[in-house]
Design brief:
heterodimer; A: mainly alpha; two-stranded antiparallel ribbon; 6% strand; B: mainly alpha; two-stranded antiparallel sheet; 11 helices
């Protein structure tokens, strides 16, 4: 039992930690590729400075994503071997494809990009960063295909005591991933958009490298604005899908105990999980029906009824995920999202009036907005994964049946403590470097670059 | 040929690729503090693998994914059974991975030294542990009738497995030294070439010892093909050490690459058709049949692998072409 709790804790921490780096990689890769595209198209050196400055930050972040990603692949087998046996026939495929199709591309072409400034033609060099950007987003697709199977199993049959794949096409066109992929990728774009806006705001307020940061700000604003709109829209569609496929997750995220028609949305609730009721709540009438069906009427099933249905379908047991944490992680995500929409719109307004550069409060606000998308990302994943409880594969296997049986508690404890120590030190090193390079700003001309003009730009990175 | 066999071969290929490519990365990492006398030189050494190490590492990530997809029971038993060993592998891959990116991002000597030792430690541990893991597969570990590992971490550290670990350690160090003598110039290349000669002298008896122990500890020689390839890897190692003595670094590197190929193939051949040998009861071993995925999954994965693997080889090969020149201090900007 303790092994189970420790493995769950480790999975939550390690996966959340990994996902601190992934979204920025997804979005910043595309932004850097766009910057270099402009450089190649116009020949304007400002864009090259931008490419290199943001590229350096991309690389620091990317390295963290890569090394924490290896742990992801290993920990299914290490801590969740019985889960791996049960779903390996299906779940292993997208992981292997992710490595074959995406990781090889990403890492090989990133090496070319970093070390290839003076070895490749401008155009080929540009292609390498686009391949990196596209490949990282392809990798997101395949890992989400794997995750989607845990949320909404499709294309399988239960045979030989495990889930076996019967339809690969169904697996990769899982309706769940059709919503989850754009939602995840776009939130990565949002993260990168606000990261670039925030850092640019910092330098604009200091009046450093105005040309570089004006252009960066402009690009990130448009990029962030479109992505924020996209992520919100897709999120709504995803919510409607969830009500159909994982009604318990939505009901718990709303602390919606009783079936109602029309159903109201709680803005705030004091939840009594033991007594299975809300002691106090502020509700908008009909709003939950709207979120579920795009209409202000419509029955939304409550936790009690869903629990009874689950007992009927799967036998006795508690099928209610932790309501309080779901309720609040959903609200943290939504509030963060609304804040970002507001910031993007303010940004657009001030940008149109060209006033943003001198609005010190706004620039400061943007700088402090950098962590907000991160908060939304993690809260979103909390909702997705905690809301899946008690299932590890929705409706097929419970979490406690998935944990490794051959690993001792002591081993698990060593690994957990070891990972925590390493991750904390790495976080310190990562933040130190990020802040250092952000403060330093873009390099106009490296003095050493003049000394070695023959090998211009070769390894500014390394 | 059935797909189970094909996937066993494919996973062998992935490990050969990993050991061949990441083998010299590990070697360079281990030799870094000893061959690089100052910061400039260390940067040269790191830059020889700079564009490649990450792509090389993907070979093992793919191997892991392929095991998961094609032989889920192998993946599950191995990863949960070798838990602490794999934890150490992860730690070493993590610290050396970030070290490559982080070390040059700050110029303080303390910072750089710390990350250089991270590169060393990570490379050293990885090179050692992969040998330990591989030889344990062949030697057999306590696996019960339900495919569960029932031993402890210490069961993995038998003298045989430790000799196995030392074998990969020295072969990879040799490989790294040969790579460096190919990819650097002047004094560093000279030092690397000398180091290669010394390492070969240590590697040879270790490999010989491993071959002898393999005869007593495993049934590898029961399969003539596996036996011949194992002996063959010893022969190529000797050949490579003669080649580097006569300053033919290029040929020495190629021939020692063959050593790694033959050595890896021999271990997998000795395993076949098992994937993990049970030391408790031979019938409890995991095989390419009882550990495998369904025929449908194998078919899908085969199609994807047959398309993707050649493409990967093509563009990874191209990167080595792009960076084919030797790295000198003139290429550094710091």
């Amino acid at each position: 039992m303790t092994e189970l709790i420790l493995s769950r804790l480790q999975f939550a921490v390690i996966t959340s930690y990994h996902f601190l780096f992934v979204p920025l990689t997804l979005g910043l890769g595309v932004l850097v590729a766009l910057m270099e595209t402009w450089y190649v198209k116009t020949g304007n050196k400002t864009y090259k400075m931008m490419t290199k400055f943001w590229g350096k930050l991309f690389l620091i972040n990317f390295a963290m994503g890569v090394v924490t990603g290896i742990v992801q692949e290993f920990q299914f087998g290490m801590n969740w071997s019985e889960y791996s046996r049960f779903v390996g026939d299906i779940f292993g495929a997208p992981l292997a494809i992710e490595a074959l199709v995406a990781f090889f591309l990403e890492s090989t072409f990133l090496g070319l990009w970093v070390f290839g400034w003076d070895k490749l033609s401008k155009k080929v060099h540009l292609i390498t960063i686009w391949i990196v950007a596209i490949a990282s987003n392809i990798s997101a697709f395949f890992i989400l295909v794997a995750n989607s199977f845990m949320q909404e199993p499709v294309g399988y049959i239960l045979r030989n005591g495990r889930a076996e794949m019967t339809d690969f096409l169904a697996l990769i066109t899982n309706p769940h991933v059709i919503y989850q992929f754009p939602h995840t990728v776009l939130s990565g774009f949002v993260t990168a958009g606000f990261f670039v806006m925030g850092v640019s705001a910092y330098h604009l307020s200091k009046r450093n490298h105005l040309e570089v940061f004006r252009r960066s700000f402009h690009m990130a604003l448009i990029f962030g604005l479109i992505s924020t709109a996209g992520v919100t829209g897709v999120g709504h569609l995803q919510g409607m899908h969830l009500v159909q496929l994982q009604p318990m997750k939505m009901a718990a995220a709303e602390a919606h105990w009783e079936t109602e028609n029309p159903a109201g949305l709680s803005l705030f609730a004091s939840i009594d999980e033991q007594g299975q009721k809300n002691n106090f709540e502020i509700k908008i009438p009909g709003m939950l029906s709207f979120l579920s069906y795009n209409s202000f009427t419509g029955e939304v099933k409550g936790i009690h009824e869903l629990q009874n249905t689950a007992v009927h379908d799967y036998g006795p047991g508690n099928y209610v995920p932790p309501v309080t944490s779901l309720f609040w992680s959903f609200r943290i995500m939504l509030t963060a999202g609304m804040w970002l929409v507001l910031m993007a719109m303010l940004g657009l307004y001030f940008y149109r009036t060209k006033a943003y550069e001198h609005k010190a409060w706004f620039l400061k606000l943007l700088l402090w907005t950098i962590p907000v998308p991160y908060l939304a990302n993690i809260a979103g994943w909390f909702m997705a994964e905690v809301g899946r409880q008690p299932w590890i594969v929705y409706g097929l296997q419970k979490v406690e049946a998935g944990v490794s049986t051959s690993v001792s508690l002591f081993s698990m404890l060593i690994a957990f403590v070891g990972f925590m120590l390493i991750y904390i030190s790495l976080a310190a090193a990562d933040i130190y470097l990020m802040v250092k390079f952000i403060k330093k700003g873009p390099e106009v001309a490296n003095t050493d670059e003049h000394l070695n003009s023959k090998v211009k730009g070769a390894s500014l990175w390394t | 040929m059935d797909l189970n066999i094909l996937w066993f071969i494919l996973i062998t290929v992935l490990f050969v690729g990993f050991f061949f490519l990441e083998g010299f990365d590990f070697g360079v990492g281990i030799l870094l503090p000893f061959l690089g006398k100052n910061d400039q030189e260390r940067r040269v050494l790191i830059n020889t693998i700079g564009p490649h190490w990450d792509g090389n590492e993907v070979w093992v990530i793919t191997a892991g994914g392929a095991m998961f997809a094609a032989f889920p029971n192998w993946y599950s038993t191995l990863f949960s059974g070798f838990f602490l060993a794999l934890f150490l592998v992860l730690v070493s891959l993590i610290i050396r991975g970030v070290a490559f990116e982080f070390r040059s991002s700050d110029s303080s000597p303390l910072w750089r030294n710390t990350w250089d030792w991270m590169i060393f430690t990570g490379s050293f541990l990885s090179a050692l542990l992969w040998g330990v893991a591989m030889t344990n597969l062949v030697r057999g570990v306590p696996i019960d009738a339900k495919m569960q590992y029932v031993g402890t971490f210490w069961d993995l550290l038998s003298p045989y497995a430790i000799v196995g670990g030392l074998t990969t350690l020295f072969i990879f160090m040799f490989h790294g030294a040969l790579y460096l003598s190919l990819k650097t110039t002047g004094e560093i290349a000279e030092r690397a070439s000398k180091a290669a000669q010394v390492i070969a002298l240590v590697a040879l008896p270790v490999v010989l010892l491993l071959a002898v122990l393999t005869h007593f500890q495993t049934d590898l020689f029961a399969s003539p093909g596996a036996g011949i390839t194992l002996v063959g890897s010893g022969v190529t190692l000797i050949l490579a050490s003669f080649l580097i003595r006569s300053r033919k670094a290029g040929w020495a590197f190629v021939v020692n690459g063959l050593t790694i190929l033959l050595f890896t193939v021999s271990l997998f051949w000795g395993l076949f058709p098992r994937v993990m040998v049970s030391s408790l009861n031979i019938n409890w071993s995991l095989t390419i049949y009882n550990a495998s995925s369904s025929p449908y999954t194998l078919k899908i994965m085969t199609i994807i692998a047959l398309i993707m693997v050649p493409i990967v080889l093509l563009y990874q090969g191209w990167t080595y072409w792009v960076f084919r020149k030797r790295v000198t201090e003139k290429d550094l900007h710091y």
